[in-house]
Amino acid sequence: QITLKESGPTLVKPTQTLTLTCTFSGFSLSTSGVGVGWIRQPPGKALEWLALIYWDDDKRYSPSLKSRLTITKDTSKNQVVLTVTNMDPVDTATYYCAHSRITMIRGVSYFDYWGQGTLVTVSS
Amino acid sequence: QSALTQPASVSGSPGQSITISCTGTSSDVGGYNFVSWYQQHPGKAPKLMIYDVGNRPSGVSDRFSGSKSGNTASLTISGLQAEDEADYYCNSYTSSGTQVFGGGTKLTVL
User: What pLDDT is attached to residue A105?
Assistant: First the structure.
């Protein structure tokens, strides 16, 4: 049974760096083909694809946010961490982590298991 | 990369069929057969409904089907049921090696 859960601060101030942790079970990030991604959703708005990390440490970032995002993994702890620098009120959103099913093409991600999401508010 | 274009809302009566469109460019939808669709009920995480344009994950009803023509992908739901009322998002692989979501479509079952 695959489960994922996001954790981190619920409130950050503008210009601060956000660090979110995704702790998962039921699969290993050392298994060939496996990936874990981050997606966010501002209140009442659409989903936005942020980043993806593969079992072999290949990383993909949204071009529009690439300069502010870093995704890393700790295979021994079954965790994936996303950092977002220079937070702004427009970054207020529910942040989801999700498991990507194995695909034939690197960079293609289909998220078949999702965490519950964590709402992060950016305000002074 | 810009978000894919979806209608803001669609509606249909129980038993009817509806189609949601998702328009992109030759750098995403039109260039690859890597389109997926997600269903999201209020306050819940999204659920994968379609991948690789027209494939259904195990457990997803065959009332859901996907297709693509040119730069536009489509999700069709047949035999509409009350439980299908939700937001639907398309997603596509892009030439930058990443993914992009659509703006979302709210489906109302009348």
Answer: 85
> Residue B102 CB: number of other CB atoms within 10 A?
27
Which of A13, A20, A11, A15 minimizes the C-alpha distance to A38?
Answer: A20
Amino acid at A41: Q
DSSP tag of A24: E
DSSP letter at A99 equals: E
Q: HEC profile for B80-99?
A: CCHHHCEEEEEEEECCCCCE
Contact A61, B96 (CB under 8 A): no
Give the span between the Cα atoms of B42 and A27, in whole angstroms: 28
Radius of gyration of chain A (CA): 14
The closest CB to that of A46, out of B1, B89, B98, belongs to: B89
CB half-sphere exposure, A25, CA atoms < 13 A: 3
State pLDDT tens for residues A17-74: 999 999 999 999 999 889 999 999 999 999 999 999 999 999 999 999 999 999 999 9
Nearest CA in chain A to B40: A47
Cα A109 to Cα B51: distance, rounded to the nearest angstrom: 9
Tokens of A40: 């966010």
Please indicate whether, in this complex, the C-beta atoms of B1 and A110 are within 8 angstroms of each other.
Answer: no
Both tokens of A80, joined, read: 């994936």
Other C-beta atoms closer than 10 Å to the C-beta of A121 total 14
| Maximum C-alpha span of chain A | 44
